């Protein structure tokens, strides 16, 4: 990693924004140069609490004009993700964004085309890929021959308040992307289709559907089953979910934290030791900085991460229609919508990139 210190603009001073600010504060090699939030007093308060003597702004474009920026952390609400990332990419500033990278696949394809055409990195922080537990579980599953059937249960009961309580599909749109992305990481394959139902238990405090069940088919023939709820009081799972994989040479489980167990054919059960290394947000930032230094593209690079977002969109469409949804159809519609927008605005470079993908998933 380079010895140079990188200037970081943090956009969003809410709960997650403050968590990211703490990650920046704890690291060598990065320093804050500005904090941006529509509520300037919140931005100033968050900066002051950390002893940061940096300017605060209500507008990201102004921040990028007036403050040095080697990278931008986009920790705004999902509806603002595209506009913030778009402004940074056009200014030549790499972006590490909170999930989802945008609310829709069409918006993500637009941003992906912009990122490629400008040669500026945009990645999503899928921080739940980064833990000793999931790495040990993935390695154990691979040693057993790879999962043919993968299942997770996610049952939690957060009382967030705010925008999540009002969302039409809070679990699928705001949380399930983590487990969907983890499934891609664990299977090493991409999704082909999904059937999903979402619903609201009678005791739910959310306006929208806070529970869902889905089954995905992947390109290697494996299946991934998801059952989740955000209004499950009692016996809650880890925020990573509780996992089981069935493979040719046995089965493995992961409690979502540090307990991975395997059992081969007719063999004894055994615990799998955990590895070491950074986890969560810090690991996502490390991966991003490594890419900026010329290393491998981060696992959340937008052209890869768009598959996780497409899983969410396809699951939502399936729940709405009551039918199985093919991912190819999701990408085709999204690509057509993004291309139509680019043609309407005359953005030649984006048009060319979207045409190269021919309506399919970015590669």
TrEMBL record:
<dbReference type="Pfam" id="PF01408">
    <property type="entry name" value="GFO_IDH_MocA"/>
</dbReference>
<feature type="domain" description="Gfo/Idh/MocA-like oxidoreductase N-terminal">
    <location>
        <begin position="8"/>
        <end position="123"/>
    </location>
</feature>
<dbReference type="Pfam" id="PF22725">
    <property type="entry name" value="GFO_IDH_MocA_C3"/>
</dbReference>
<feature type="domain" description="GFO/IDH/MocA-like oxidoreductase">
    <location>
        <begin position="166"/>
        <end position="234"/>
    </location>
</feature>
<dbReference type="InterPro" id="IPR055170">
    <property type="entry name" value="GFO_IDH_MocA-like_dom"/>
</dbReference>
<dbReference type="InterPro" id="IPR051450">
    <property type="entry name" value="Gfo/Idh/MocA_Oxidoreductases"/>
</dbReference>
<keyword id="KW-0520">NAD</keyword>
<dbReference type="InterPro" id="IPR036291">
    <property type="entry name" value="NAD(P)-bd_dom_sf"/>
</dbReference>
<dbReference type="GO" id="GO:0000166">
    <property type="term" value="F:nucleotide binding"/>
</dbReference>
<protein>
    <submittedName>
        <fullName>Dehydrogenase</fullName>
    </submittedName>
</protein>
<dbReference type="InterPro" id="IPR000683">
    <property type="entry name" value="Gfo/Idh/MocA-like_OxRdtase_N"/>
</dbReference>
